[in-house]
Amino acid sequence: MAERGLEPSPAAVAALPAEVRAQLAELELELSEGDITQKGYEKKRSKLLSPYIPQIQGIDSTVQKEHKNQTATSAAPTSTPSKYHRGRSGGARDERYRSDIHTEAVQAALAKHKEQKMALPMPTKRRSTFVQSPADACTPPENFSAPPDVTTTSSSSSSSSIRPANIDLPPSGIVKGMHKGSNRSSLMDTADGVPVNSRVSTKIQQLLNTLKRPKRPPLKEYFVDDSEEIVEVPQADPNQPKPEGRQMTPVKGEPLGVICNWPPALESALQRWGTTQAKCPCLTALDVTGKPVYTLTYGKLWSRSLKLAYTLLNKLGTKNEPVLKPGDRVALVYPNNDPVMFMVAFYGCLLAEVIPVPIEVPLTRKDAGGQQIGFLLGSCGVTLALTSEVCLKGLPKTQNGEIVQFKGWPRLKWVVTDSKYLSKSPKDWQPHISPAGIEPAYIEYKTSKEGSVMGVTVSRIAMLSHCQALSQACNYSEGETIVNVLDIKKDAGLWHGIFANVMNKMHTVSVPYSVMKTCPLSWVQRVHTHKAKVALVKCRDLHWAMMAHRDQRDVSLSSLRMLIVTDGANPWSVSSCDAFLSLFQSHGLKPEAICPCATSPEAMTIAIRRPGVPGAPLPGRAILSMNGLSYGVIRVNTEDKNSALTVQDVGHVMPGGMMCIVKPDGPPHLCKTDEIGEICVSSRTGGMMYFGLAGVTKNTFEVIPTNASGSPIGEVPFVRSGLLGFVGPGSLVFVVGKMDGLQIVSGRRHNADDIVATGLAVESIKTVYRGRIAVFSVSVFYDERIVVVAEQRPDASEEDSFQWMSRVLQAIDSIHQVGVYCLALVPANTLPKTPLGGIHISQTKQHFLEGSLHPCNILMCPHTCVTNLPKPRQKQPVVGPASVLVGNLVAGKRIAQAAGRDLGQIEENDLVRKHQFLAEVLQWRAQATPDHTLFLLLNAKGTTVCTASCLQLHKRAERIAGILYDKGHLNAGDNVVLLYPPGIELIAAFYGCLYAGCIPVTVRPPHAQNLTATLPTVRMIVDVSKAACILTTQTLMRLLKSREAAAAVDVKTWPTIIDTDDLPRKRLPQLYKPPTPEMLAYLDFSVSTTGMLTGVKMSHSAVNALCRAIKLQCELYSSRQIAICLDPYCGLGFALWCLCSVYSGHQSVLIPPMELENNLFLWLSTVNQYKIRDTFCSYSVMELCTKGLGNQVEVLKARGINLSCVRTCVVVAEERPRVTLQHSFSKLFKDIGLSPRAVSTTFGSRVNVAICLQGTSGPDPTTVYVDLKSLRHDRVRLVERGAPQSLLLSESGKILPGVKVVIVNPETKGPVGDSHLGEVWVNSPHTASGYYTIYDNETLQADHFNTRLSFGDAAQTLWARTGYLGFVRRTELTAATGERHDALYVVGALDETLELRGLRYHPTDIETSVSRTHRSIAECAVFTWTNLLVVVVELCGCEQEALDLVPLVTNVVLEEHYLIVGVVVVVDPGVIPINSRGEKQRMHLRDSFLADQLDPIYVAYNM
User: 3-class DSSP state for residue 394?
Assistant: First the structure.
């Protein structure tokens, strides 16, 4: 709570009138329960105190947290609830988990945090997503920024499930040549570059502010060589408490009394009472309303068990082949509300000497943990299940009435044990009852921490000795009545209610869970009615009775001499016992009757508090320091009362037993007296083994503790109990937790139950259900991380939940000094439950890790709890040129460079050599081979819609030149935008421009259905290129001038638009010939993936060189045919579509990619139909075919499609080769003849559109595996396939003739060795001659196009910078020249790399990891925003899965890339923009995110 200036001292409060004091107390209560905000509280409080303030102000106003709590408690003493308490909703406060100490501690801890105003940004959620949340808009708490209003924006793209037409979208006009920031001034208004218009960025600002707060725990900066050692190793805290006591000695219980009439076996006791005391009541069962419905007498129990034993042994099979033999295992399947049938079946099995395995009744085919139960039955060799008729009817059945085969269960034969189906045993038949020995009596199932189920086997002698020990410890006597609320099938419910009961001829009243749910006070009423001496309960039952207590005034508990609390080992049992006592003491409950005990399936009862003597002082409490406990040390808490744990003892060791405490991990060394360890017990009463698991048995049931020197302390084996604790003064046993609930985080131990208790002490009534909180740890990045999952109430608002979650995080952080990795709330009743209504932890954990938990609220806090990340890398000072050269020579490393074949040496006898200009080549072909067809254009049906021979193309180009001259009145050198769909029209217009001396600029036409997104790009290119005229079709001309277009751009200022559909026959008097080949031929405009719109200038000589290089590499001649399925607007796609056929004379079959969307078979069937040897496509086309035709291979075969003719299938790309996609494609179509060697890629960039192209000759593309960790340091280390953290890279095709590349350090501009990653620089005759920009920014031109190495290059070559990172490797293959072949590997665009923690990351690597984590992730993209990593995932599943993705994404990025994800955004499919080349436009996505235009399903801000 914030410190308040007007804080009256206790004396002043005492001076206030009584009614004001009462009102203050009520206010305090409201605040602590979360019914009123801090602000509201202070307002009301000051109003109350205002009349008295003058008198108070004089008094010292020091603030002490205790005083506040005293004011609350003084007004509401605990013994009788105050009137305010009573007025509140009945029983909403759950006393089970509440120790007042704990609640007070939590409030104090939260108060500390209140002072640093909460800075956690609230997640953004789309309203429709979760049915749970109320429909009204949620208002954020005062100190948060409002969440983005995601309801108003709905983009047309996100509403459709398919991806919209591929669009190139430059954000808000970025043009190469301008300074990156300068033109964004409309966006950037604040100093730190946070766009003001965006609410998202305010969230991120808050997030950054939370990250600036110091992390805990403060770790030593300790780091081993970064290439070998990743993890920051936490140093031990020098101040951590260490055990100082002497080594403990084993503690003995009192000797087991030798009483002459103990029966030799439990069955003998049953025989004795069944024959001599037949009328005595043994077990009373209740109906659903809690009324007694049937009482089983000892006579009935004996006779019915006898009948069952006889039937089992003699009536199930034939005489020669009985189904059951003594020693066989049998499953007992009875519901808890039928204790009578269960008891008869259990004793029937004992008498028949078969081994009962009691299990829960399966409710569905796939119960939580059901499969594991099946595994237990299988491993025990169970083939027979006993059940009652009623239970059998209720089991799930198949259509034909048979019981379903439960998942993972063996085949079972079901036997009904109702009396009418049993055969009476003959007079002369008697069961064989031998004295108890070490043969197995029964098997009790136990679920381990991981969820596996094991069977603890208990011998007959252990069963008997345990009964004797319990009878002695509890002082049982004949005829006593015991009320049992526990599960009768296992643990204390079985031991007291079924065994000790029969041993001592007592009467058990069994109150099942189903009755407790409808009538929580039923057990108290049974104690009252039957004057029961003993009751057997759990804390839950105490708590339920307190809640229902006001319904029943006149119950008396004075008969109870023992109230056995069987989960006395829980941290909250002490407060439950106290609260119950204070409420029921007035009903006759004696304080000394409360007897907590501790049990475990392996060691059975470990300790129990003996009933006390009236008036004797009650045993003391241990108030332990949480900090000490986390180091396994017992320290009485003195300094900070907030982080204390109060525990009560569970009495003394059992009679005849011996106990010691051993180290919980490693060999069983004895602990020191002030050390917490695992409790081990040695006696005849524990389990003997885990059935069928010899290895685990040895570690648990045959432990020989050793002393400090490692020598055993005796011969006697001990059994590990799975409980953690210590032996206190007076040999009292204290339990502080369970091994199964232990979370070891950064070497410190935390108990799941303690964390649950802290979570519940934060007022949670409105938000979550109290009994439904699961705490477990998951292993992420070399440490355990704590996860808390709770069920949210349906009426909880978003804001309440978020508020509660943030407070829980703070409370746990403050009290346990441990960060919570993830806190998730799921809708009510969705967590997997155990049969008795608890949460099935291991199943919940499995759902969490599989991404099938479906939370409705989630908070991840990786920044606070991941403290073992490696230190950020410091950049080394730059090494000078000399040392680099020397270093290279000394290390024997080659400078990383490579080159294609030399153009000069290749003689061509072709006439083409004579022509310097492409326009001349076309004119020459029109004369030499007028009827040779150059182009065929196909439609979606695969039919040719248009062809062009050399003469037709020449003629059409002449007419277009004429119309430019006439209508456009253009001069040579004017720029003309060509706006056409992919086709021959576009090619003709291009050559028409060349004939007229104009500079063509090809632009993708706008998409008629999506003008608002696509038209601005067109407008921008028109403006930037200063086009004098636009050539287009009539349809597009109408679209450009339409009303819809006017909404997107200014249509009045278009330059002259000329449509070329109906051309006049007039032609130019003479065709233009450029004076020199250095003159501009065309402009190539493209939007890069980082959203930069760049136009480059291509000269005639560059065009010629480019066509020649491609011709040589691909061996293109006029007799050849190639198929092109690419977009023809920029880069290599444009060159292949428009230029190469005219230069080389080969025939191009043109397939517009958009036609493929209507007919997926089009491309492959064309290749087959024309028997094409070389085909070119884009990644989008390849992906479309792989995804769309994946299950259609048989259809392709049926259509007769065969791809064995294909020699090269080349993917045209400007990115790292997508090896996985290429492999999938090759593998998929291998069945229809595609050679795996055929698929390869090209590499080009803005400065040079074709650097690599696989071509026909030359070695196959090579692949390498490189180490990702080294790559982040810009180093290249080759590793073997399958190495951890390895990345598969493929060569980007062969370097084209005439091209040289060198790998350069982008910062120093010096060449690097071939073991380094650097920027690819290129030198070639077809490099572009510069950027075409509005402002001729000379420095950028020089830097990108005409730059020199800073050293090591005597020839002073001029290089162009591609902007891509890569490396060169010499392979074992031989190139055409006869030398070893140098392969170029492209890793990614320099602009796209993310600099995080001083390392260089490539987005695609992170995206690949993320895409693998969950089946519902369709696509994903990452970018950074002010040092935060933002991951956007497209969800293709149902919206309930949206929040499952948040922890999975966070985990995988942390595990594989050592990065913490700052923001996870879940969006609809199709939201991530992808351009025509199939590349993600991450910067565009980033701008949309910051401008709040994504309409996300969910945005999680990881704290």
Answer: helix
Q: What is the dihedral of CA 934, 939, 944, 950, to 10 degrees?
A: -20
DSSP 853-920: S--SEEEE-HHHH---PPPPPPPPPPPPHHHHHHHHHHHTPPB-EEE---STT----SGGGG-SSHHH
DSSP conformation class of 1048:
H
- What are 737-778's pLDDT values in tens digits? 999 999 999 889 999 988 998 888 887 567 888 788 999 999
Q: Tell me, what amino acid is at 192?
A: D
Smallest Cα–Cα separation from 1362: which of 1436, 1435, 1300? 1300
Give 643's DSSP letter.
G
Instruction: Name the pLDDT band for 1339 (thresholds 50, 70, 90).
Output: low
CB count within 10 Å of CB 173 equals: 17
Strand 507-510 versus strand 719-727 pairing type: unpaired
Helix (H, G, I), strand (E, B) or coil at 598: strand
How much is the average pLDDT of 1252-1257?
85
**How many Cβ atoms sit within 10 Å of the Cβ of residue 889?**
10
For residue 213 the two structure tokens come to 């707060």
Question: Cβ distance 980 to 989 under 8 Å?
Answer: yes
User: CA 263 to CA 167: how far, in whole Å?
Assistant: 88
- For 988-1003, letters b (16+ CB in 10 Å) and e give bbbbbbbbbbbbbbbb
User: Radius of gyration over alpha carbons of the chain, in Å?
Assistant: 41
pLDDT class of 78 with cuts at 50, 70, 90:
very low
**Given the DSSP bridges, would you call strands 1428-1435 and 1461-1467 parallel, antiparallel or unpaired?**
parallel
687, 656 in Cβ contact below 8 A? no
Q: What is the per-residue pLDDT for 726?
A: 95
Q: Which residues, in sequence order, are bridge partners of residue 1323?
A: 1300
User: Phi and psi dihedrals of 411, rounded to 5?
Assistant: -70, 130
Cα–Cα distance for residue pair 1431/737, rounded to 1 Å? 39
- Beta strand 677-682 pairing with 944-949: unpaired
Q: How many CA atoms lie within 13 A of 871 on its CB side?
A: 13
Burial class (CB in 10 A: 0-12, 13-18, 19+), 1061: exposed
Are 650 and 608 in contact, with CB atoms under 8 Å apart? yes
Which of 257, 249, 255, 251 is CA-nearest to residue 656? Answer: 255
Contact status, residue 1398 vs residue 876, Cβ threshold 8 Å: no
Q: Which two tokens stand for residue 636?
A: 């009485």
Three-class secondary structure of residue 53 per DSSP: helix
Q: Measured at the alpha carbon of residue 449, what is the angle toward residues 726 and 659, in degrees to the nearest 5?
A: 25
Mean pLDDT in residue range 1158-1184: 94
**Dist. CA 239–CA 233, nearest whole Å:** 17
For residue 1050, count CB atoms less than 10 angstroms from its CB and return exposed for 0-12, middle for 13-18, buried for 19 or more: exposed
CB–CB of 173/185 below 8 Å? no
Instruction: Please state, in angstroms and as integers, the Cα–Cα distance from residue 1399 to each residue in 36, 1276, 1363, following that order.
Output: 48, 14, 18
Token pair recorded at residue 779: 């292993």
Count CA atoms within 13 Å of residue 115 on its CB side: 7
If we measure between CA atoms, which residue out of 431, 500, 421, 490 comes closest to residue 456? 490
Pairing of strands 975-979, 1029-1032: parallel
What is the residue type of 1166? T
Q: Which residues contact 1399 (CB under 8 A, 6 or more apart)?
A: 872, 873, 1272, 1273
Residue range 911-954, pLDDT digits in tens: 546 788 999 999 999 999 999 999 999 999 999 999 999 999 99
CA 1249 – CA 1362 distance, rounded (Å)? 10
Alpha helices in 1077-1148 (DSSP H): 1100-1114, 1131-1134, 1140-1144
Distance CA 1190, CA 1015 (A): 35
Q: What is the mean pLDDT of residues 676-693?
A: 91
**Rounded Cα–Cα distance for residues 497 and 487 (Å):** 9
**CB neighbourhood size of 977 (10 A):** 24
